[in-house]
Structure of Pyrroline-5-carboxylate reductase:
Amino acid sequence: MSAEVLPPVLLVGCGKMGGALLAGWLERGLSRAVVVEPHKPSTEAFAHRVEVVPDVHSIPSGFVPEAVVLATKPQQADDALPDYRPFARGGALFVSIMAGKTISRLDAMLEGAAVVRAMPNTPAAIGQGFTVACAGRRVSSTQKDLAHRLLVATGEVDWVEAESLIDPVTAISGGGPAYVFLLAELLEKAGIEQGVPPDLARRMARATITGSGALLGRSAEDAAVLRKNVTSPKGTTEQALAVLMAEPAWPELVSRAVDAATKRSRELAK
Ligand SMILES: NC(=O)C1=CN([C@@H]2O[C@H](COP(=O)(O)OP(=O)(O)OC[C@H]3O[C@@H](n4cnc5c(N)ncnc54)[C@H](OP(=O)(O)O)[C@@H]3O)[C@@H](O)[C@H]2O)C=CC1
Ligand SMILES: O=C(O)[C@@H]1CCC=N1
């Protein structure tokens, strides 16, 4: 645990991503957290470590969070957010991780609030997240520092000035873990199709992804060089990559996939 204990936080929505952030914060050391989450099973992993309430009206009256983290689904925001206006009036910083929801929209829903829009990813749960954040015009430098401390407790953080960049960020680092996990699923399935025993296929696929990720993380080489290091001339990988890199395979499909997710992030703003 770090020497720095994080300040009181109100987490609104403790599903997959809110839960991942909370796990990261608890690992780091959190002074007090109140979690608003109507779906009780989502918070069972945190029982006895944080105070969980089912709705905004059940938040303990003396609780004064320095930051309110909005982690409901974007489609739930319109109904949920007006109830949080008193916290905005009280000067709390709002950190939204909701895909698509713009700072101006959140500011309007909260009738004036200091809003940081951030896009984390689920490796935050083990302190290996990657977050890109953008601060709204009402955010003071002290509040930006607070947002940074909360987000950096779960991994790396980058700040951007242009909020429009959060849409492609959502498509790449926000959703990226899903693409990697899909690859793990597909490698496991392909192994089984080739007659590899299921347990071995599963371990092989997982270890290949985690080992490659760790190598990429530690290496100064470009990903392309690490790929070429695996690809022996006239060997086996060359055959597989010829399939994966043929048009319209990975090079086109990954760009199309990221484009589709970026467009959806922009649509969610509405
Ligand atoms: N999953 C990810 O990898 C990432 C998600 N995000 C963003 O994080 C947000 C949450 O996503 P995710 O965790 O996947 O979604 P989940 O559905 O897993 O989590 C949202 C949680 O909020 C609860 N909830 C619904 N209404 C309220 C309310 N009024 N007050 C408090 N809690 C409420 C939901 O309960 P119920 O299920 O009963 O509705 C649910 O448990 C989204 O906006 C998403 O865009 C950002 C980055 C990555
Ligand atoms: O799928 C989603 O909309 C969210 C945002 C990024 C990852 N999950």
In short: Residues 99, 170, 174-175 surround A1CAB (ligand 2) (CB under 6 Å). The mean pLDDT is 95. The beta strands are 9-12, 33-36, 51-53, 67-70, 93-96, 114-119, 129-135, 155-159.
